[in-house]
Design a protein that fits this description.
The complex is a heterodimer of chains A (about 400) and B (about 300).
Chain A: E1 6-7, E2 16-21, H1 22-32, E3 37-40, H2 47-56, E4 63-66, H3 70-82, E5 87-91, H4 93-98, H5 100-109, E6 113-121, E7 127-131, H6 136-141, E8 150-152, H7 157-174, E9 177-183, H8 184-188, E10 190-195, E11 202-203, E12 239-241, H9 255-270, H10 273-276, E13 279-282, E14 289-293, H11 296-310, E15 315-320, E16 322-324, H12 328-335, E17 340-344, H13 351-359, E18 364-368, H14 378-389
Helix pairs in contact in A: 1-2, 1-7, 3-5, 11-14, 12-13
Chain B: H1 41-54, E1 62-66, H2 74-77, E2 81-84, H3 90-100, E3 105-111, H4 112-118, H5 120-129, E4 134-139, H6 174-181, E5 185-190, H7 194-206, E6 211-216, H8 220-224, H9 232-242, E7 243-245, E8 262-269, H10 275-287
Parallel strand pairs in B: 1-2, 1-3, 3-4, 4-6, 5-6, 7-8
Antiparallel strand pairs in B: 5-8
Helix pairs in contact in B: 1-7, 4-5, 5-6
């Protein structure tokens, strides 16, 4: 984060101590971050986010529109961004699948926005009311072509509030779609949520150009890789396209322009990976085994970690808050000093592949898979920790 | 911005032959365009530009949104805030733009396949909501950019690359569809009717709500040729001879055939409160003083 940060607009901030579920906390985070526009389509277990937004936003000055499908919702919000709003949409697996094309459009046009995915069991209609974490790779790779996004994984209603603000801030800072990867458990879990006063909440404003109409290049970058934006109706007469484009925003479908554009879309995020990386560590020093987890699974794993420590095993914890860009530097450093990583997740092995790739053979990697529909039995994680410690 | 417009077109005077009167609306650094000889899309852009002059629209508050396809490329050639979006999604993108900044005049400029096939759901829902958008649908009766495949608008018995033995599925009558869905202004012209088209676009700018103007336009390369209908000039002769102006015609009677009569005119011109008006009155009624109107959304 940088010096451009401003304080939140108090009109959107519900300061106080609340007993609130993760979905509602996510909505409050969006309002605190300055979002005044959401487009949505109902889907379990995510709908509560926009239901609350629909109730709240007319009282703080903004718009919610329920669209005819997720294809519409995921592009309506981008129209709103170019109209000057901070905007988001909320969905779950089947709807997330429908939104993929527009995640690519947001990445290509560098439209800052937030996609919230409250993950449920899949594939297809799967388990509408039950948790999973099986959209993690889809969040990164779901749209066609090469691009980068940022993905965050909250593990509590408090984090659903805090990190939704972070998601909006990162979207603005890097002009990138940010995936907010909740899961059904975190979305429907009710806990204490503390919403601070507005003057304690940092908000990243739009990276709006200060250049004159004559000097403005919509996709020109002054070395920092993130171009400055203008909004429709300000006289800049700019062009935005999902086609490969040059710095003027004009279509230019040649290999050199493609190379320059797509590499920048990737490097603006990858080069900042260390700054974007957020994780929580515990007893990493001297650990033989490090349990890598995220979202609801990090809370289940905590119990297994504590049980393993009672058995005398040296177990560290690494909780991923940023899933993408994957914090591979951190894993690589740990891999030099530990025997093994244990990676429980509510899927049949997704982020574990990244851990294994980053460890690059320096340490073993053990998956603890779960097809979704519930959370792990901590005993199952404990067994793998014991095995990995040998 | 309006001050600098070349308004010679209004006077019916022969403009200076060295000056393209609509060049002021175009990104001349992007010309030549990609459209084929005889294509009607450029003609519709001329009529659109003429309407901008006639209706004295503030170009600074005008945004144009296109989808994908031959007509989708219009966004790239006009000197406006312009958005070339994804296939079929120009209308929902335009919806977001309009709702976030209601001061904008938002035009959707796209083709029949984009708006009525892949984007058909958005077309009817935007008409139902009566979002204040001006939709210009250039209907060349075919998917042209991809090589002449059947569209929902392709007339019965035409031959296309995906119906090589003739189209047998019934086609959409777009004015009827959007009228039924709730549009407040519905007109159809051909690219022969350049002045009437301009006038309709100007009228649509005066309406608040969902306006839909269909322009029947030739595709000599893929539709005419494959159906032995001649070139662009032959299409003009056909439009001239077989078009019949019937303002106020029941839209149920204006369906298209391959070589038959083309009913053109203004079919629907009615009043219905638009989405934002309804939203505001609903919130005012339900929330009273708790309702906070959306301020200008400039988050910088």
């Amino acid at each position: 984060m940088n010096a451009d940060l401003q304080k939140a607009d108090p009109r959107g901030v519900l300061t106080g101590v609340h007993f609130m579920d993760g979905d509602h906390a996510c909505c409050e985070g969006a309002l605190a971050a300055g979002s005044r526009f959401a487009a949505g389509y109902p889907i379990t277990p995510s709908t509560e986010v926009v239901e609350r937004f629909a109730q709240r936003v007319p009282t703080v000055g903004g718009t919610f529109i329920q669209m005819e499908d997720e294809l519409a919702a995921s592009i309506t919000l981008q129209g709103a961004v170019w109209g000057g709003a901070k905007a988001f949409t909320v969905t779950s697996g089947p709807g997330f699948s429908l939104m993929m094309e527009h995640i690519g459009y947001a990445a290509m046009t560098e439209t800052p926005c937030v996609f919230v995915d409250v993950q449920r069991g899949g594939p297809s209609t799967g388990l509408p009311t039950l948790p999973a974490q099986a959209d993690m790779m889809q969040a990164k790779w779901g749209s066609h072509g090469d691009y980068e996004i940022i993905a965050l994984c909250p593990n509590s209603p408090q984090e659903c509030f805090d990190l939704t603000i972070t998601a909006f801030n990162l979207a603005e800072e890097y002009r990138v779609p940010v995936m907010f990867m909740m899961d059904e458990c975190v979305g429907h879990m009710t806990e204490k949520v503390v919403i601070p006063p507005a003057d304690q909440i940092d908000v990243m404003p739009r990276k709006h150009t200060r250049k004159s109409v004559e000097d403005y290049l919509p996709y020109g970058t002054n070395g920092d890789q993130v171009p400055e934006m203008a909004h429709a109706g300000e006289g800049y007469n700019f062009h935005v396209t999902g086609l490969t484009h040059d710095e003027r925003g004009y279509p230019n479908m040649t290999p050199p322009v493609q190379d320059k554009l797509v590499r920048r879309l990737q490097s603006k995020i990858r080069d900042a990976a260390d700054r974007i990386a957020m994780f929580e560590e515990e007893q990493i020093e001297g650990a033989d085994v490090v349990v890598v987890s995220y979202g609801i699974t990090s809370r289940v794993a905590q119990r297994a970690i504590e049980a393993a420590r009672k058995k005398g095993l040296r177990v560290g914890k690494l909780r991923l808050i940023t899933a993408w860009p994957f914090p591979e530097k951190k894993i690589r450093e740990l891999a030099a000093n530990v025997k093994a990583f244990v990676v429980p997740e509510l899927n049949l092995g997704q982020m574990v592949r990244e851990v294994e790739r980053a460890a690059a053979g320096q340490a073993k990697t053990f998956a603890v898979s779960h097809a979704g529909g519930g959370v792990h039995n901590p005993e199952d994680i404990l067994k793998v920790i014991v095995e990995a410690s040998r | 911005m309006t001050d600098c417009l070349n308004t010679d077109l209004l006077k019916n005077e022969i403009p200076d032959p060295g000056v393209n009167p609509v060049e002021q609306f175009l990104r001349s650094d992007r010309i030549p365009h990609i459209w084929c000889p005889g294509c009607g899309i450029g003609t519709t852009v001329n009529s659109f530009a003429r309407a901008l002059i006639e209706s004295k629209i503030d170009l600074g508050s005008l945004a144009l949104v296109s989808g994908i396809g031959c007509t989708g490329r219009v966004a790239g050639y006009v000197k406006l805030d312009s958005f070339h979006t994804t296939h079929g999604r120009a209308i929902p993108f335009a919806t977001g733009l309009k709702l976030a900044n209601p001061k904008l005049n938002v035009v959707v400029y796209s083709g029949d396949g984009d708006l009525s096939a892949i984007g058909g759901n958005h077309l009817i829902h935007a008409a139902r909501r009566n979002i204040d958008l001006k939709v210009i649908c250039v209907n060349n009766l075919i998917y042209a950019m991809t090589g002449g495949q059947t569209a929902p608008t392709t007339p019965d018995h035409s031959t296309t690359s995906t119906n090589p033995y003739g189209v047998f599925e019934p086609s959409f009558n777009l004015p009827h569809l959007v009228e039924a869905a709730g549009a407040v202004y519905v007109a159809r012209w051909t690219t022969f009717h350049v002045r009437q088209l301009s006038r309709s676009i100007s009228e649509a700018f005066k309406k608040k709500g969902f306006s839909f103007i269909e322009v029947i336009s030739p595709c000599p390369t893929l539709y005419q040729r494959r159906n032995k209908l001649g070139d662009g000039l032959d299409a003009m002769k056909y439009y001239k001879e077989k078009s019949k102006v019937r303002n106020g015609a029941p839209t149920s009677e204006v369906g298209m055939t391959m070589t038959g009569e083309i009913i053109v005119g203004k079919f629907v011109d009615r009043e219905r409160p638009d989405y934002l008006t309804l939203m505001k009155s609903q919130y005012t009624e339900s929330l009273g003083e708790r309702f906070v109107e959306q301020p200008e959304m400039v988050c910088s």
